Amino acid sequence: MQNNGARVVAVCISEKKGTRKREISLGVLLENAGLIGDAHSCRESIRQVSLLASESIQKMKEKGLVTDPGLFAENIITSGLDLLGFELGTWISIGKTAVLEITQIGKECHRHCEVYRRIGDCIMPREGVFARVVRGGTVRKGDRILQIDIP
User: In the CATH scheme, what is the code of domain 7-148?
Assistant: First the structure.
């Protein structure tokens, strides 16, 4: 499953829950907490960081949705990585030091988001992947993403 061509496309945060995220140039992942400055960062959560593949976002573009980073409330947009192919418990490294553990694939959508209300579909409940931060570090556009063995 390891793919040396996998990269970070964007890093996004929002200060309040329920609002769309905005792209930032550099994110800091805090061990066992999440992305600093993001409203979803939480020590008690198994969903500290959300990831979404750019390939999934492309499906929505093909349905006519105009998108920009953060529209689906994702923290990290990836490219060249089969996020849905990971098993729970898989570890991935991002950049030089950050390590995430995949903890959940998909999520229950309790109330429909802005995207769903606009076009009748949203990919995050089906294709969003969630992780906890095992080791902190910085993350930015262009960083390499690798599946790693659990030490």
Answer: 2.40.33.20
